[in-house]
Amino acid sequence: MNQAEALYHLQEIELGVLRARKRLQEIAAALANSETVQSAQTQVANARKTLTPLQTKARDLDLEIQSTIQKARATEQHLYSGQVKNPKEMQDMQQEIQSLNKRHGELENHLLEMMVAAEEGEAALHEAEATLTGVTAEWESQHQELLDEKKTLEKQASQLLEQRKTALTQVEPGSQKIYDALKPKKNYHAVALLNGSSCSMCGVDQTMAIEREARQGQKLVYCENCGRILVYRS
Ligand SMILES: [Zn+2]
Q: Would you give the distance in Å from CA 210 to the centre of its chain?
């Protein structure tokens, strides 16, 4: 393995590490982001917030109806018990019974409205809950896939770092210095392949002399155009 080949091998490993790290970052972001689930949770909470006061109101109305019925019944019993003799008092009691019956009717209507509204609220809540269950299950399955992928990538990255150590033993200090200086300028692609007579990164044709030197691999040669180290691959 000549120096250009050794550097190319090193670059391939380093690019592999970079790809793994980039994907690990994406996974970390995806795992932290559960917007869909949060939004479904909000929907459920809102549906509950709408429904609860309706149910409370319906219960209150029902109690009020029961108490109105009892009051009317008690007044009736009293009226027809024979204990009340005073006509004015009897008339008052009859009026009270009438007004209680009227109130009872109003309360029943109101209760009916509340019950219809509560039923609609319940249906909305059930729908929101079903959506939440669905998106949660979906998120969990994705979550599991991502966790599995994360595990694989972490293993891959650590294997690549081991390979990098081995690859570095093939690189001479002088070559490494050149490579390290080029790397940041060339976005981690300091080495390009010589494809026929052209540079694989910029596509520019090289002179016969450069091509020959790259083939020989005795020393590092550079692309005339982009300045990358050229490696000849037979
Ligand atoms: Zn080039």
A: 52
For residue 37, how many other CB atoms are within 10 A of its CB? 16
Give the closest residue to 18 by CA, choosing from 160, 150, 151: 160
Of residues 43, 118, 103, the one with CA closest to residue 70: 103
The domain locations on the chain are: 34-167, 173-232
Cβ count near 216 (within 10 Å) = 11
DSSP category for residue 230 = E
- What does DSSP assign to residue 195? E
pLDDT of 58 over the 90 cut = yes
Cα radius of gyration (the chain): 42
Residues 77-81 have a mean pLDDT of 91
List the one residue out of 183, 192, 196 whose CA is nearest residue 222: 192
Q: Which residues surround ligand 1, an ion (CB under 5 A)?
A: 199, 201-202, 223, 225-226
Q: How far is the CA of 169 from the centre of ligand 1 (A)?
A: 26
Q: What is the pTM of this model?
A: 0.59
Beta bridge partners of 77: none
CATH number assigned to the domain covering 34-167:
1.10.287
